[in-house]
UniProtKB/TrEMBL annotation:
Belongs to the battenin family. Keywords: Endosome, Glycoprotein, Lipoprotein, Lysosome, Membrane, Methylation, Phosphoprotein, Prenylation, Transmembrane, Transmembrane helix, Transport. The chain crosses the membrane at residues 27-48, 117-135, 141-162, 174-193, 205-225, 280-298, 318-337, 344-364, 370-394, 406-427. The lineage of its organism: Eukaryota, Metazoa, Chordata, Craniata, Vertebrata. This is Battenin. It comes from the Eukaryota. GO terms for biological process: amino acid transport; endocytosis; establishment of localization in cell; lysosome organization; membrane organization; negative regulation of apoptotic process; regulation of intracellular pH; regulation of protein metabolic process. It is found in: Late endosome; Lysosome membrane. Its main location: other.
Length: 436
């Protein structure tokens, strides 16, 4: 009797164990997808600057994950400014980085459903790998710029596609995605700087990190456990037509009358998508405002927050600003399992306060030490990362099942729009301070 009980106990445990294992695989898969989607962009942009400037030393370079790096060559002494700044704001490159992504996020959600997820991932992988090859092997500036554009397309299309993809999985995969994207900034900068520091050229470093797009490929096709409802190789219209055809066949075969009352909702119409977007404004505006303030600080003010009597040089101060900011982003984007913040406008307000504080600090130079700036930019990263993961978590939670896939993709335009506007605003601010 005892043996019978022990034998029958095993099958009862297997479904739960399989469910947990599947849940873990999906979480890890989305973590790697988030890491790879942003990681390639980070490394490629840092390397693009080194190749264009023919520099291989990190000592004179500050690495910024979303923009080309800033090069401090003893300041800008030609214009007599009291600020140690470059003649051209880093916002110039920020706009070049973000505009292709912004265009994709504005228009792709309305038509991207026609392209199955399998083909989207293959396209993103090809674009990311091509960007590495173009920038690594280029001998002309325009080819390297083309590589930047390809990386931006891959990152933008990947972000909205993978956010849409979360609608087919349990909501906890959003925590994996957010944590992975947060880790990309830190891991990308550290890996690139580490490989170049040990003597590898930027070109060879780029060829080595070509493995990253293929990790994305493996994560999607072999690590994730997709549900049967996922349109892997067929678009929405084809899948819907197949379902309707099956329902009609069942009715003709003499199914019960109540089966006739069941209706399978088709893809969202254009009018329905506009209605969904209207409901998303309460999420998109706070997210856009957070990112506007965030990148206005990063690209308009950070370079100007220089403390001459500090033990770090200008380049080193800037590098640590960016590093601490990225650590803040990593921590907060990984916090969804511990804390959830519904009041997104509060995060926006606090980030704007940060921007105003640092703007006055640049103008009146009342901060006594870089240590205070280190604390502020770490806090800035915490706010930005928290706004990102909580925005998409509550969109996923509060939208209807039929609208969720589109809503996740459409809302991703918020951060890119805020970044683009921040780049435009940073131009006159940088020019004003550098001509004082």
């Amino acid at each position: 009797m005892e043996q019978t009980v022990s034998v029958n106990a095993d099958p009862v445990q297997h479904p739960d164990m399989n469910g947990r294992f599947t849940q873990w695989r999906n979480w890890a898969g989305f973590w790697l997808l988030g890491l790879c989607n942003n990681f390639a962009y980070v490394v490629m942009l840092s390397a693009a600057h080194d190749i264009l400037k023919k520099q291989e030393s990190e000592n004179t370079t500050a690495y910024t994950p979303s923009t080309l790096t800033v090069d401090f060559q003893g300041g800008n002494s030609s214009n007599g400014s009291r600020y140690d700044c470059n003649p051209v704001s880093t916002a110039a490159v920020l706009l070049a980085d973000i505009l292709p992504t912004l265009v994709i996020k504005l228009f792709a959600p309305f038509v991207i459903h026609k392209l199955p997820y399998g083909f989207r991932v293959l396209f993103c992988v090809i674009m990311a790998a091509t960007s590495f090859l173009l920038v690594s092997l280029s001998s002309a500036v325009w080819i390297s710029i083309l590589g930047v554009i390809f990386a931006s397309i891959s990152s933008g299309l990947g972000e909205l596609s993978f956010l849409s993809l979360t609608a087919f999985f349990s909501r906890d995969v959003l925590a994996g995605w957010g944590s992975g994207t947060g880790g990309a900034g830190v891991a990308g900068a550290l890996l690139y700087s580490g490989l170049t520091q040990v003597g590898l050229s930027p070109q060879n470093t780029l060829l080595i990190v070509l493995v990253v797009p293929f990790i994305m490929l493996i994560s999607y096709f072999f690590l994730l456990v997709p549900p049967p409802s996922l349109p892997q190789w067929r678009n929405r219209e084809t899948e819907y037509a197949a379902v309707v055809s099956e329902e009609r066949r069942q009715l003709m075969d003499g199914s019960e009358e109540e089966e006739q009352e069941k209706s399978t909702p088709g893809p969202l119409t254009f009018i329905e998508k506009l209605h969904v977007m209207k409901g998303l404004l309460k999420f998109v505006f706070p997210l856009g405002l957070v990112y506007f303030a965030e990148y206005f600080i990063n690209q308009g003010l950070m370079e100007l927050l220089y403390f001459p009597n500090f033990f770090l040089s200008h380049a080193e101060q800037y590098r640590w600003y960016q590093t601490l900011y990225q650590f803040g982003v990593l921590l907060s984007r990984s916090s969804l399992c511990c804390v959830k913040i519904r009041k997104l406008w509060a995060l926006s307000f606090l980030q704007v306060v940060n921007a105003v504080l640092l703007l006055f600090a640049v103008r009146y130079q009342f901060l006594p030490s870089a240590w205070l700036v280190f604390a502020v930019v770490l806090y800035e990263g915490l706010l930005g990362g928290a706004a990102y993961v909580n925005t998409f978590y509550f969109i996923s939670k509060e939208t209807e099942d039929r609208e969720r896939e589109f809503a996740m993709a459409a809302a991703s335009v918020g951060d890119s729009l805020g970044i683009a506007l921040a780049g435009l605003a940073a131009f006159p601010v940088h020019r004003y301070f550098c001509h004082l």
